Amino acid sequence: MPVFWIVCAVLAIGVIGYGLCRSKAMKSAGGNARNLHSLPSYYGANAFLFSVVAPLALLFAWLIFVPILIDRSIGATIPEDRIAEGSSLGLMMADVSRVSNGLNLAVSEGAMTEEESRSIRTEFTDVRERLASVGVALGSNVDATILQAAQKHRAASDRSRLFMSIAVIALSLAGLALAMSRTKADFRARNTVEAAVKVMLIAAASVAILTTLGIVLSLLFNTIEFFRIWPATDFFFNTTWSPSFGDTGSELGLAPLLWGTFYISIVALAVAVPVGLFAAIYLAEYASPKVRAFAKPLLEILAGIPTIVYGLFALLTVGPLLVSFFGDGGTFGVEWMRGGTAVMTAGLVMGVMLIPFVSSLSDDIINAVPQAMRDGSLGIGATKSETIRQVVLPAALPGIVGAILLAASRAIGETMIVVMGAGAAAKLSLNPFEAMTTVTAKIVSQLTGDSDFASPQALVAFALGMSLFVITLALNVLALYIVRRYREQYD
Amino acid sequence: RDQVQVAGSSTVLPYASIVAEAFGENFDFPTPVVESGGSSAGLKRFCEGVGENTIDVANASRKIREKEIKACAEAGVTDIIEVRIGYDGIVFASDIDGNTFEFTPSDWFNALSPKVLVDGAMVDNPNKTWADVNADFPAQALAAYIPGTKHGTREVFEEKVLAVGCEATGALEAMVAGGMSEDDAEDACIAVRTDGVSNDIDGDYTETLARIESNKDGIGVFGLAFYENNTDKLQVATMSGVVPTTESISTGEYPVSRPLYFYVKKAHIGVIPGLKEYAEFFISDEVAGPDGPLSAYGLVADPALADTQSAISAEETMASGS
Amino acid sequence: MTDISSNTPGQGARVASSLLTEDKRTKKRNAAEKRFKAYGIAAIAVGLFFLAALLFAIISNGTRAFTQTFVTLDIELLEEKLDKNGNRDIEEIKKVSTFGYSPLLDAAVTKMVTDSGVETPITKAKDLKQLLSSGAAGDLRAFVVANPDRIGDTVEFRIAASSRVDGYLKGRVTRESLARDKNLSPEHLDIVDALKEQGVVKKSFNWDFILGADASDSRPEQAGMGVAMLGSFFMMLVVLALSLPIGVATSIYLEEFAPQNWFTDLIEVNISNLAAVPSIVFGILGLAVFIQFAHLPQSAPLVGGLVLTLMTLPTIIISTRASLKSVPPSIRDAALGVGASKMQAVFHHVLPLAMPGILTGTIIGLAQALGETAPLLLIGMVGFIASNYPEGVMDGFVSPNSAMPAQIYEWAKRADPAFYERAWGGIIILLVFLITMNIIAIFLRRRFERRW
Amino acid sequence: MDDLRSVERIVSDDEKTKISAKNVQVYYGDTHAIRDVDVEIADKTVTAFIGPSGCGKSTFLRCLNRMNDTIDICRVEGDIRIDGEDIYDKRVDPVQLRAKVGMVFQKPNPFPKSIYDNVAYGPRIHGLAHSKAELDEIVEKSLRRGAIWNEVKDRLDAPGTGLSGGQQQRLCIARAVATEPEVLLMDEPCSALDPIATAQVEELIDELRQSYSVVIVTHSMQQAARVSQRTAFFHLGNLVEFGETGQIFTNPTDERTESYISGRIG
Amino acid sequence: MDDLRSVERIVSDDEKTKISAKNVQVYYGDTHAIRDVDVEIADKTVTAFIGPSGCGKSTFLRCLNRMNDTIDICRVEGDIRIDGEDIYDKRVDPVQLRAKVGMVFQKPNPFPKSIYDNVAYGPRIHGLAHSKAELDEIVEKSLRRGAIWNEVKDRLDAPGTGLSGGQQQRLCIARAVATEPEVLLMDEPCSALDPIATAQVEELIDELRQSYSVVIVTHSMQQAARVSQRTAFFHLGNLVEFGETGQIFTNPTDERTESYISGRIG
Ligand SMILES: Nc1ncnc2c1ncn2[C@@H]1O[C@H](COP(=O)(O)OP(=O)(O)OP(=O)(O)O)[C@@H](O)[C@H]1O
Ligand SMILES: Nc1ncnc2c1ncn2[C@@H]1O[C@H](COP(=O)(O)OP(=O)(O)OP(=O)(O)O)[C@@H](O)[C@H]1O
Ligand SMILES: [Mg+2]
Ligand SMILES: [Mg+2]
């Protein structure tokens, strides 16, 4: 039975269980929901969960693990000496399962009869060609060992499928029966259901953890690889970043990139935070509902404009403008800026992009501060701005910090604006009118470059990613500490 | 999966996509999927193994490295067919309304090297305008937009321009005489100054073009194809007296160019429908020849195209072919 | 109460000041108030100013992409070229490649120019054909393969003009610039002028740009956004269907149920940290997990959606948590007090009140996901991909496709300036897509907003 | 004080204990807010908690239905039993407990929903109504018992937060009685009510006493005397005296009680 | 009722009018919450507003310092003057007005700040203290006047939201008096207070009357009689009767007043 239909069957059993248990619960309570521990729908939902969750989990596990077991057992039947030179059991097994799947496909597309699929021999048929005709990719010609293994594999898989269907549906029915037997007036159905919901919530929360784990793992091996061929001290303490294309002459120092990252992010936040925060305050506290209803979504468009537009804006408009102010022979008569690309250019433009990150979320949070807080302050003769600064903002602090963190994160992760606005040169300089670059921009450029993928110049991307990860982690710990410290719980 | 999956160099991408499109039009096979992402990333995915969830073809703007071949082999990708599709010309261009230049490698070395040879001694580069570099040039401020170190083009620029210029000006000799080892001196030759005169571009040629638009004094490094599509904005400089065109490059007159490749997994041939046909179609005379659409777009046709064609039809792998 | 005029002895220490005149301190405070408000207005003005500037740039650069010049051309589908044996066997017709259709086009173009009566030094049909898109032969072949019975007829075709001709009609290309251009010469423009006069060459609205597929570098005039739009659409479906529930569930767990200990602190810090992970790193993760480990197809919107989901989650979680935190505890108390379970209190009362913030997070997160390209680079959705329409809904998720921002970046990189114009046009479509996507959320958010 | 009435309501000896608290300690962080409190609350009686502001009445009241669980820094020790079952037992579901032990909070906290939904919420989640009509009936009855029906019957769809202070308080009473709890904890339910409304709520309390037990915190000695059969006097976190209302008011044993009651002015 | 005391406090004839309201109408959206109210509040007197819950006392009170401005749907019409100046005049700065006319809200609403900061907030923004010491003094004095000093003097840094209901109410009173307003509007300031605290607050009101005028909303007839010189009786948004407290309580002219007062129980 195809997986889709198994799932449907299980769901159907679940729905039936819902109805059965709900009515059974009502009956056991003499038709009066008051005598039940929980609402009748909870009994139904409980039955649904009982007859759906475990079977689907079993199905899932079976689909993942049983094929591995089958592979292992079939693999054990392939004699060692049949494994070709330069190949491995693993590669052969990949072929075996591909041939096996190919046979399935061939049968289902009618290119081969069931009979044939079981009896074909390499001596008489060009299996590869026949499978290629149904679009199955094979790495090499099929030899007899592989074909036999594949046929065994296929038979085992078929058997496993059958058992799986039976097991899953049986489990589903068993769950239903169990739920039925437990459905009595005093059964705590709500607690069971809520426990299940809670498990789901935890499962959702663990997605974030798994993601982190995945990120760390996917960076880790290559980072280790990098440090094996590149001295860590040099990476962390060298103050020059100048990778070269060839094997020699590269200098891969983290410091200038890190400095560029923070410098640009700080400039961006210096634009986005005040503008965003004041915009949020105005929207939440002063603006008429009409203005608010328009201005807020409009500002949010800023977050949706592709960064390439910002990049071009920085390069073509903001950069030259700044040069005309601070450049050679500029309005201010200073010679701080030599080219349009600078920390300032990228920072300003990125700041504009981040405005809605701060403004929209802060606006929601400020709006959620109870009116009684404002009344209390206004009632003793505070002006609106005093009220906002001293009562509303502190009460909304956790949310605002969250919004700022989000903006900062985005600033750290941005590449396009940096590449076009701040340039690609890594420099350690205090002058905000100089070109610099960020860790993220370099991660992207080293990863998508043309250099040898096993060379330090490419692998350094992973080390950069890892370092950035650790550093932002530390900054986030600090932010958490600050919020904990200054949080003011209203009500 | 029924379509050919290609990934790799963004320099090869335009050519590959022209071919893929025409391939999809003329064959019953679906249009191949051509991804960009850089030669490195493409080869890396190419070398991940054999099977449906790996790519069939990797485009590269450089030759595959030994280490990469080894990494491939470790993952089971042993039989690789190398295909050279032609050459990419690298040109120097500046704003259409600006001054016209006729460069030699020495000019570029003197303009961009952090240390240059002045009166027999290596000193910090004092040049501020092109006139400082070469008295024949106008007094236009030095501003160069060269590819970032991630680009294969940068390597070519270093090898065929800076290193050549270094030797021609005698700086190499002077450095070796000054006690530097040969290797160090060669490295020093291809270094560029970091005082803002030379700007690395990590983006694409469009970015270089935009930079020149915002700084009219700028001179940028472009691919020939890009220049040829933007002749309304750019004027090209000659190198050692030769104007870059597909002809002058294919004859080898114009010195700055690089070969472009793609690599095919032999194990996938005959398995992935259309893979071999795609490879053959790519380098057929109709497509990659001097009159084909690739050449029209700016690819410098490979004079030895016929050899490549026969190598492909024989499915010669790198080990057996070379 | 009667004798108001009488002076009350022992007046209070404070001199009663008039409300109509401001004392010095009030003046200062009111000035501060005015300044504060002005900052707010200025902040919004700054934001809107930049928005206007950006939109102006986008629209002024992009609207041209929505029109395209077409040439109406009578083409004789010669039997001896297309079906030598004359038996209309589709397999044989298919054998004729696009190169085989060139002579038909050559003939048609030459005829068109002669009919128009323009004097031109260009005589070679190959050069004249440069007026047309290089995709013309492909269109022709596709038509013939679909309608083999028309072979032998003369059929009227509406063929896209080449990008230079199109640029000329749009004012992007001038005669001077063409003088140096090897693709087209000023003489071609004389022909174009004449044909335009006669109505053979016409500029019209370009539906193909909105609905069509990407085209290669040699034929920008045929490139369209449609397929990439579908790619983005399917990706957004995945993102919305996963990131919103998972994000909200995670936030609810962390904010309302999780015990307060170092482990939840770790998760909290961790999630904020995920927001700062460069998006390309999510691409690395996606490549490793979804393609190499889970064997999902490459270049598929499904995978793209999954990667973007992971990337959007932190945004939604952070904003959801912030707004859950801002719901006053008395609401929870009230619900618990009537015997609601914690779960019920959260889902019935707290969540609706936190809805505005959740929706804001969704709006911002989706905007970010919709405009992101870097992670798509690694899972194979950037490049020349969006060339076929998916065949069905399932196929939409798994068949190779690109996404709008990837398409835009791709176009912006290409050499032909016609692509640059299209990149801006694509941005307009992207923004329209984004705004449509957000409108529902914005309306919902307004419904949920309240003060208490 | 009207002694007659108090005497009239003296409870019979055979009453059952509904809630028994032994040796209860409550801490807010380091502050010890409730010390060694032992109280037995009888079934079908009204118990009044009196005492100066800040003495711990609300805190103790919140222990009885575990509302203190929601305050992070709050820690409860000791033994509190309802019908002989330890409510702080791990197996006890606080939700079920709270359904059984309803509460009216000191600060009125209506949901930011319509008046109707405010009252209907409890019956809905407890499945007390099978149809819309039945629910309407419950809502009307509860609002009537909360002495607010006349004022809101025309605006059941208006938000509960747009009511006056006293109306909100009565809405919260209506909301609490709508779920028909066995024990009703009322924290100063009449603080914002005018005398007539107060009388109506007191009538309600008297009516509820027929089947349930009610615990009421009040600052009005008169009210305590009028509605309660038992009175507990708290002082600085200690339970100073607990006994029959009549006896407490006429003949307190502890001098603190004495002075609190005699010092009364309200 | 202790008539003697009421009589004792009858105001002299030569008093000045502090606030005069004429023909005041208040609407919440379409609901007409206050109709045609005319009131004159004399300087240096205590005026009590009484009336059944929901009759519009708070609404009218909030008109007097324009707190109704913060409610979007609320619309005020009519003429309200303080010291002869129309407070709804465009030129009037509501901030200055509110500094002059302080308010204690019906629901205690301490800021989520420390107790100290809650009280110091007003003096700080009005610049009433020049040094930390002076501020400390103001805070202590205000907390003492709010009858809460003893309870909180050891925990001035603790958050104001962690206080008991009655403590919060007194904190809010302390916060309001800290800014020394000329008129103090108090919306049921003693609703959550025990008799002793109530007495202290009443003393405070009496003390404030020496220099300012006080308007107090109360549900306790006794309290109204004890502290006020004038009483206004509201009913269903109308001002039914307004006059000397003694006269209202002993000899009401309107029968609604009569029945409200006689129907009293609390
Ligand atoms: N924000 C509001 N929106 C709509 N109606 C309101 C609002 N506030 C009060 N009302 C209505 O206006 C009327 C008067 O309310 P107000 O708060 O002035 O009563 P009150 O006399 O203070 O009563 P209480 O003694 O219960 O506090 C009531 O009917 C009330 O429901
Ligand atoms: N959340 C809290 N955090 C810290 N301390 C608290 C908290 N709630 C109450 N307290 C303190 O515990 C003590 C008892 O408070 P509780 O609220 O029980 O008093 P109460 O008797 O109800 O007073 P009132 O009559 O004023 O409502 C008080 O000193 C109060 O300050
Ligand atoms: Mg209390
Ligand atoms: Mg009121």
TrEMBL record, chain A:
<protein>
    <recommendedName>
        <fullName>Phosphate transport system permease protein</fullName>
    </recommendedName>
</protein>
<feature type="transmembrane region" description="Helical">
    <location>
        <begin position="199"/>
        <end position="221"/>
    </location>
</feature>
<dbReference type="GO" id="GO:0006817">
    <property type="term" value="P:phosphate ion transport"/>
</dbReference>
<keyword id="KW-1133">Transmembrane helix</keyword>
<keyword id="KW-0997">Cell inner membrane</keyword>
<keyword id="KW-0812">Transmembrane</keyword>
<dbReference type="InterPro" id="IPR000515">
    <property type="entry name" value="MetI-like"/>
</dbReference>
<comment type="similarity">
    <text>Belongs to the binding-protein-dependent transport system permease family. CysTW subfamily.</text>
</comment>
<dbReference type="Pfam" id="PF00528">
    <property type="entry name" value="BPD_transp_1"/>
</dbReference>
<dbReference type="InterPro" id="IPR022182">
    <property type="entry name" value="PstC_N"/>
</dbReference>
<keyword id="KW-1003">Cell membrane</keyword>
<feature type="transmembrane region" description="Helical">
    <location>
        <begin position="45"/>
        <end position="70"/>
    </location>
</feature>
<feature type="transmembrane region" description="Helical">
    <location>
        <begin position="162"/>
        <end position="179"/>
    </location>
</feature>
<feature type="transmembrane region" description="Helical">
    <location>
        <begin position="391"/>
        <end position="412"/>
    </location>
</feature>
<dbReference type="Pfam" id="PF12501">
    <property type="entry name" value="DUF3708"/>
</dbReference>
TrEMBL record, chain C:
<dbReference type="GO" id="GO:0035435">
    <property type="term" value="P:phosphate ion transmembrane transport"/>
</dbReference>
<keyword id="KW-0812">Transmembrane</keyword>
<dbReference type="GO" id="GO:0005315">
    <property type="term" value="F:phosphate transmembrane transporter activity"/>
</dbReference>
<feature type="transmembrane region" description="Helical">
    <location>
        <begin position="300"/>
        <end position="320"/>
    </location>
</feature>
<protein>
    <recommendedName>
        <fullName>Phosphate transport system permease protein PstA</fullName>
    </recommendedName>
</protein>
<dbReference type="InterPro" id="IPR024573">
    <property type="entry name" value="DUF3333"/>
</dbReference>
<feature type="transmembrane region" description="Helical">
    <location>
        <begin position="38"/>
        <end position="59"/>
    </location>
</feature>
<dbReference type="GO" id="GO:0005886">
    <property type="term" value="C:plasma membrane"/>
</dbReference>
<comment type="similarity">
    <text>Belongs to the binding-protein-dependent transport system permease family. CysTW subfamily.</text>
</comment>
<keyword id="KW-0813">Transport</keyword>
<feature type="transmembrane region" description="Helical">
    <location>
        <begin position="346"/>
        <end position="367"/>
    </location>
</feature>
<dbReference type="Pfam" id="PF00528">
    <property type="entry name" value="BPD_transp_1"/>
</dbReference>
<dbReference type="Pfam" id="PF11812">
    <property type="entry name" value="DUF3333"/>
</dbReference>
<keyword id="KW-1003">Cell membrane</keyword>
<feature type="transmembrane region" description="Helical">
    <location>
        <begin position="423"/>
        <end position="444"/>
    </location>
</feature>
TrEMBL record, chains D, E:
<feature type="domain" description="ABC transporter">
    <location>
        <begin position="19"/>
        <end position="261"/>
    </location>
</feature>
<dbReference type="GO" id="GO:0005886">
    <property type="term" value="C:plasma membrane"/>
</dbReference>
<dbReference type="GO" id="GO:0035435">
    <property type="term" value="P:phosphate ion transmembrane transport"/>
</dbReference>
<keyword id="KW-1003">Cell membrane</keyword>
<dbReference type="InterPro" id="IPR003439">
    <property type="entry name" value="ABC_transporter-like_ATP-bd"/>
</dbReference>
<keyword id="KW-0547">Nucleotide-binding</keyword>
<keyword id="KW-0813">Transport</keyword>
<keyword id="KW-0472">Membrane</keyword>
<dbReference type="GO" id="GO:0016887">
    <property type="term" value="F:ATP hydrolysis activity"/>
</dbReference>
<dbReference type="InterPro" id="IPR017871">
    <property type="entry name" value="ABC_transporter-like_CS"/>
</dbReference>
<dbReference type="InterPro" id="IPR005670">
    <property type="entry name" value="PstB-like"/>
</dbReference>
<comment type="function">
    <text>Part of the ABC transporter complex PstSACB involved in phosphate import. Responsible for energy coupling to the transport system.</text>
</comment>
<dbReference type="InterPro" id="IPR003593">
    <property type="entry name" value="AAA+_ATPase"/>
</dbReference>
<keyword id="KW-0592">Phosphate transport</keyword>
<dbReference type="GO" id="GO:0005315">
    <property type="term" value="F:phosphate transmembrane transporter activity"/>
</dbReference>
